[in-house]
Amino acid sequence: MSSDRVTPLDFDTAIARWDKQKANFVKTLDLTLVEVGRGKATMRMPFRSQIANNAGAVHGGAIVSLCDTVFWVALASLYGPEQPTATASLTCSFLRPALPPHDLVAHATVLKPGARIVYGEVHVHSGEKLVAHTTLSFLNTPLGDGRGSSPAGRLRSVAETEPT
Questions:
Q1: Cα–Cα distances in Å, from 134 out to 13, 59, 158?
Q2: Any residues with CB less than 8 A from the CB of 73 and at least 6 apart, and which?
Q3: Other C-beta atoms within 10 Å of 163: how many?
Q4: Contact criterion met (CB below 8 Å) for 156 and 131
Q5: Cα-based distances in Å from 89 to 30, 45, 64, 68, 147
Q6: pLDDT beyond 80 at 6
Q7: Contact 47, 102 (CB under 8 A)
């Protein structure tokens, strides 16, 4: 990564890093990266009894984890996969139960990229039905010396460095 430009996360790179860096918890959810675009990402989570609640629907915690993870990929498509981040806030509205046999498909979009805070949303579908809507903010954490300076001097996204 050059000091004046952030390299976006392309699909092939995303898949390679995704397969290599999956956390054990994410592996348990069996998430699959389907698509990555500029500030967007899509993931699939198969319906399995291991992630169902007592009512037979997908557990809300599994849905929230899907949302958090797919939004990170959308963010990485703008800032690069090496940018340290942390979830600052996440609000998930569960609109209806996610019932078998449909897999869940989550579509993440970065709505406002920023040098420090990134805002976005995730829509989760089960079949044709919207089952959850999530709004998120992620914090771009400092690189370099830990005092807020980065090798680039200031964190910049691809959205800030390239004309649209």
A1: 26, 15, 24
A2: 9, 14, 18, 33, 36, 41, 43, 108
A3: 3
A4: no
A5: 24, 22, 12, 10, 22
A6: no
A7: yes
Q: How far apart are CA 95 and CA 85, in angstroms?
A: 28
Whole-angstrom Cα distance, residue 31 to residue 73? Answer: 12
pLDDT at 121 over 70: yes
Domain-wise residue ranges, the chain? 11-161
Question: Position 22: which residue type?
Answer: K
Q: What's the token pair of residue 122?
A: 């995730």
CATH assignment, 11-161: 3.10.129.10
Residues paired with 29 in a beta bridge:
none
* Alpha-carbon gap, residue 115 to 79, rounded angstroms: 10
Neighbour count for residue 6 (Cβ, 10 Å):
21
Q: Please report where in the chains the tokens 């709004």 appear, as a residue.
A: 135
Alpha helices in 80-162 (DSSP H): 158-161
Strand order in the sheet with 40-45: 32-37, 40-45, 104-112, 117-126, 129-140, 85-94
Q: What is the pLDDT of residues 43-97, one digit of tens each?
A: 999 999 999 999 999 999 999 999 999 999 999 889 887 788 899 999 999 999 9
Q: In 10 A of CB 133, how many CB atoms?
A: 15
